[in-house]
Specification:
heterodimer; A: 16 helices; 40% helix; B: 99 residues; mainly alpha
Chain lengths: 473, 99
């Protein structure tokens, strides 16, 4: 019904609609699209009650910046008094005792949190086929995956089940589903949005970000969520910008030949990105091909470091304090082992095992330390590049969305789905996927912009120019 | 060369508090060996003289004052426990007298 918040805002200000009507609309849309399996739970009563309160605030001119904006949250974000499960059986029935800072800031501006969205278990996956609560279907074509791990978030926004959604991005989990579902997906710089209340997967990679139909809504949500938070010591104290003041300028753009000429890339994706780049050049931007020799090392580095962090982060699920405890428990030891073995899915266990291996004595230096050094090398390379360039432009994914079930048997092939997205998480840079590509097979593909650290305003300004010029929507 | 033997899997499973039956043990052993030969590629890169990158935020950590604050109540802390009584989380027995 509403592609962007500004449309709703103007209808609310002229009394053409009420927040209550809008919430009721989205609740019925969710009901009609249950087959997509995007929502794990709809917070219906809660959302309707809040809608009444916010309508009252609007009539008193006291409403916040996001009054009535209907937002879904990925099922790894805590919202006090509501269930959260990271799409895992091990957290079945768990209720949040506090609210994530990112979510709280949305609530403080009178947004409506409509429900929690399906995802890959503990955000581990690239197709949303790893959820303990079933796969999510791509609303564009129900035989295809929506991407992952924030697949429910992307599918819900595309299908019009909410106006925007929050996701988390550890290796591409916001940008790749945005590319597969033809919407905007923003991963901010590491530390720009507090991770307090985000269920941890790999803490030095994880970032929360918005999935939206428009650049303006992505900027608006970033504006509200960004900034220092005492509850997350890794959140940055750098001042935030005015992300909604878009500024047109001539940019210096780097393109990576190794990415665009990669053997696995669909030739129409390659041509589509190249053609946009030539048009940008014709419009006065400087475009330069740069040699980036580390493409084949990105996913290996990512998997060593993220599995190590995951094995440590997921040690807290012990079957004792909260969550699932196995019925086969006989003593303390079996409580741990049976609960974890029965509670975690296959991919999660695989990653815990690899992470435990690379951290174990005898292998720590060869794998974990080595990967941390490669991460330094990558970050240094990116820092040097951004002394010369404003943005890097590459595809978000090598191809359009694939069939459900097509890649589930080969974990490495699935890991390579993230080949173009993990770089921004390894280096911490902000990155965004823009819905500008359309394949002759009728399916979408995203263009990815990676920018200088904490230059989200510049990134969004450039993104707006690209979307305004090249969007097919 | 496969690095991960059945013995390695047993040791890792013990460290990670996971169990694998015979079938899934072969599977996880194959998967880990595949994943390791995939990440072995990193050895091609010369990283001499590079410091491991550990912290992504290079701002100085400012510690807050050490003040007592109450974030959750006892009832809340107990509310998600799989087994509990009015004051405590109940755990299964740790030592077996029979043994």
């Amino acid at each position: 019904m509403y592609r962007s918040y500004s449309e709703l805002k103007s209808n609310l200000s002229t009394n053409k609609t009420s927040v209550l009507q809008v919430v009721a609309h989205y609740v019925s849309q969710i009901e009609k699209n249950k087959h997509l399996n995007a929502f794990l739970e709809v917070f219906e009563d809660d959302a309707l009650n809040r809608a009444r309160e916010i309508d009252k605030k609007i009539s008193q001119n006291k409403a916040g910046k996001l009054a009535g904006m209907v937002i879904g949250i990925k099922d790894n974000l805590c919202y006090k008094g509501h269930k959260v499960s990271a799409s895992s059986k091990i957290l079945e029935g768990f209720k949040s005792l506090y609210t994530a800072t990112a979510v709280q800031r949305l609530l403080d501006e009178d947004a409506i949190i409509i429900g929690r969205l399906n995802c890959d278990e503990f955000a581990m996956g690239s197709s949303n086929e790893n959820s303990a609560y079933g796969k999510v279907l791509n609303p564009i074509n129900n035989k295809l995956v929506p991407g992952g791990s924030s697949g429910g978030s992307a599918a819900a926004v595309k299908a019009g089940l909410c106006m925007a959604a929050l996701g988390s991005d550890t290796g591409g989990s916001i940008r790749q589903p945005a590319s597969f579902c033809d919407i905007v997906g923003l991963k901010p710089s590491y530390g720009r949005i507090s991770r307090y209340g985000l269920i941890a997967y790999a803490s030095s990679f994880d970032q929360i970000g918005p999935l939206t139909n428009t650049i303006e809504d992505a900027a608006l949500l970033l504006q509200v969520m960004a900034g220092k938070d005492e509850m997350d010591s890794t959140s940055s104290s750098k001042p935030t910008d005015d992300y909604l003041s878009f500024e047109k300028k001539k940019n210096k753009i780097a393109i990576f030949s190794s990415f665009i000429n990669h053997s696995g890339i669909d030739h129409e994706v390659k041509n589509g990105i190249n053609s946009i780049l030539s048009k940008l050049e014709a419009q006065g931007h400087e475009v330069e091909a740069v040699d980036f020799p580390y493409l084949d090392y990105l996913v290996p580095t990512y998997y060593v470091l993220t599995t190590a962090e995951a094995s440590s982060n997921l040690a807290r699920y012990d079957g004792i304090h909260y969550g699932y405890r196995s019925e086969n428990t006989v003593d303390m030891e079996t409580a741990y082992k049976k609960s974890r073995t029965e509670g975690f899915g296959e991919e999660v266990k695989r990653r815990i095992m690899l992470g435990t291996f690379v951290l174990s004595s005898g292998y720590y230096d060869a794998y974990y330390s080595k990967a941390q050094k490669v991460r330094r090398l990558l970050k240094n390379t990116m820092d040097e590049l951004f002394e010369k360039f404003d943005h890097i432009v590459i595809p978000t994914s090598p191809h359009t969305p694939f069939q459900i079930g097509q890649q589930v048997d080969d974990p490495i092939k699935m890991y390579l789905e993230d080949i173009f997205t993990v770089l921004a998480n390894l280096s911490g840079n902000p990155a965004i996927s823009l819905p500008v590509g359309k394949h002759s097979n009728g399916l979408p593909f995203g263009l990815q912009v990676i920018s200088k650290n904490f230059c989200e305003r510049e990134m969004l300004s450039f993104s707006k120019e690209i979307v305004d010029n090249f969007s097919h929507n | 060369m496969s690095k991960v033997t059945e013995e390695t899997i047993n040791k890792l499973a013990e460290l990670a508090k996971l169990e694998f039956d015979e079938n899934s043990k072969t599977q996880i052993q194959n998967d880990l060996n595949k994943m390791l030969s995939f990440v072995d590629k990193l050895n091609e890169l010369d990283t001499d003289g590079l410091e491991p990158l550990i912290y992504m935020n290079n701002e100085q950590t400012i510690l807050r004052d050490d003040e007592v604050a109450s974030d959750i109540t006892q009832d809340e802390a107990l509310s998600n426990a799989p087994q509990k009584d009015s004051d405590y989380i109940k755990v299964p027995k740790v030592l077996d007298k029979e043994k």
